[in-house]
Each structure stands twice: as C-alpha cells, then as structure tokens.
Amino acid sequence: MLRREFLTASVLSVAGVAAAGQPAAIAPTPSPVKGRLKQSVCRWCYGGMPLDALCANAAAMGIVSVELLGPDEWAVAKKHGLTCAVATNVKSNPIPKGFNRVEHHDAIVKDLEERLPIVKEAGIPQQIVFSGNRAGMSDEDGLKNCAAGLARVMPTAERLGVTIIMELLNSKVDHKDYMCDRTRWGADLVQRVGSPRFKLLYDIYHMQIMEGDVIRTIRDHADAIGHYHTAGVPGRHEIDGTQELNYRAICEAIVEKGFTGYLGQEFIPTRDPMTSLREAVVVCDV
User: Fold this and answer.
1) Residues 6+ apart with CB under 8 A from 163
2) Which of 10, 40, 108, 140 could be 264's S-S partner, Cβ–Cβ 3.0 to 4.6 Å?
3) Pairwise CA distance, residues 203 & 262, whole Å
4) DSSP string of 207-226?
C-alpha cells in the first residue's frame, strides 16, 4: 500500500521515466563522507519505480533505509542490505482516522498488537501512527483520547523495543483538519504518554508550513522527536535552491542535538528522480 491516499498522474509520470522496464542501479555514489545522519528514503514518492530498483539505487548512494514499507516489502530492502526505518501504517489507522477518537481504539490497538511482533522480528525500529482529524473535537480532548489509546499499546512496544512514532502533518495545505499539526501539541502528547517508546515524526516540510522556526523548534523539542522527514517548501519537491529552507543548516541542528535516528527523504521529484535523490543525500550529509 502506498503511504498516501493517492498519487497524482504527474508524480507517477515523473517516477515512471526512471522506471521504464527494470532500470539498473545508477553508477554508485560514494557513501556520505561524514555520515553523522542516517539517511532513508520514502517509498511512496517513487511509486512508478519498482521497489527493487529503488533499493538498488538507494544502497548505491549510501542511503541505509527505504521506509514506509509494508510487511510484504521488507525482504526486498533487506536483500539490498537496507533496513526499513519506519513500517507503514496499519489499515485501521489511515491519516484521517486515528487515536483521537475512542471508538477507533479497539481496531487500531488490535492491528498494532499483531503488527509490532513482526516489526520486531524483521529488525524494524519504528512503527508509524496518526492522530486522525479533528472533526470538531477540541485539541485537549484529542490529547486525552490519544494518550489513552496509546497507553494500551505501549507495554507491547516497550517489551519488544519498537518505537511508535506519530507524524506531525500540516492541516493548512495537504491534510485538512488533521489534529497533530503543531509541535507543541505533539510534545504534550509525548509527555502524557510518558514512554521512551513513543516519539514524534517531525516532518520538516509540514511544520514549516504550519509554524516555521524549524531550527529553534528542533532544538527545543529534540527529546520528543524520533524521526525526521524532508521536502522542499513550497511544493513538496526537491530540497535544492528552488525552495525556502536551508536543509544543510537544519541537518546540522539535528546532529548537534545528538540525534541517532533516521532522516527520511520524502520529497516528490520534478526531474530525474535518482539525480534529485542523490543531490538531497549530499545536502543532508553534514
């Protein structure tokens, strides 16, 4: 399953250029010279490319993970010496339907209790979850409900050593009405859950849209963050000079806080996908 509800025809077309037939891996790019930040790439951004080809290209660039894969895809990454830094969401927990509503808890908890042991067995460190949309609910009620639902799965996550991460998404452009759309709200939830196995997925693209002040926010809330995602603002495309964020400075700030997890490249390429990905790897090698 793709991470998003849909991929536009234009995205498939761009990725498909690189995916005609079974593309061979690009000429290897030297592994990151510094490598202080473990880099990953999100599968859904390259929906037109066979996973095997994406993994081969990623490994050649020094990327160590292809993420947001389902259980039937994990072996492909492993074949190329890669991990999957984050397992894709369970079926009962799509982006709009999450932990903020008590009536969803039984189904999500059941699916996670089944998923987490196989995540552990596969050596995958993290499982993604979503808050769900507000639909008129107050943020305080959402916090209470999310904390109560997550409390039901944290014993299993702690026992297995798998970290559950809730993604921060913007509710302004891409995910209207999504509740976990501010870092402060997410950090409050981390505090209420009170487990070392619950963290935030800080999506830099989404939080630049919602609140800006990215580097200060990362420094202030580093302890609550377990994973990062990239993409250019505006447009969610390459993290190059066409967009407003200084990703090199952002990555420096992440490393300076002692972060040892993964940073996932999650932009939608507008030109040759593997060239853009290789360039992003270099930008983030701080």
Assistant:
1) 125, 126, 127, 157, 196, 197, 198, 199, 226
2) 40
3) 12
4) HHHHT--HHHHHHHHGGGEE
Q: How far is residue 170's CA from residue 176's CA, in Å, rounded to a whole number?
A: 8
β-pairing verdict for 225-230 and 38-42: unpaired
Instruction: Give the DSSP per-residue string, 59-128.
Output: HHHT--EEESB-TTTHHHHHHTT-B-SEEPPPTT--TTS-TTSHHHHHHHHHHHHHHHHHHHHTT--EEE
Q: CA 132, CA 178: separation in Å to the nearest integer? A: 6
Confidence at residue 27, expressed as pLDDT on a 0 to 100 scale:
47
Quick check: 7 and 44 in contact, CB under 8 A? yes
pLDDT of residue 24: 44
Largest pairwise CA distance in the chain: 52
Residues 264 and 230: beta-carbon distance below 8 Å: yes
Per-residue model confidence (pLDDT) at position 34: 81
Q: Which of 171, 187, 195, 189 is nearest to 100 (CA)?
A: 189
The radius of gyration computed from the CA coordinates of the chain, to the nearest angstrom, equals: 18
**Are 224 and 200 a contacting pair, CB within 8 Å?**
yes
**Among 203, 146, 140, CA closest to 169:** 203
CA distances from 262 to 66, 74, 216, 229, 271 (A): 11, 17, 19, 9, 25
pLDDT tens-digit profile of 75-110? Answer: 999 999 999 999 999 999 999 999 999 999 999 999
Q: Name residue 199's beta-bridge partners.
A: 165
What per-residue confidence (pLDDT) applies to 19? 39
Torsions phi, psi for 138 (to 5 deg): -75, 155
Shortest CA distance to 254 belongs to which of 215, 280, 281? 215
- Predicted TM-score (pTM) of this structure: 0.90
pLDDT exceeds cutoff 70 at 155: yes
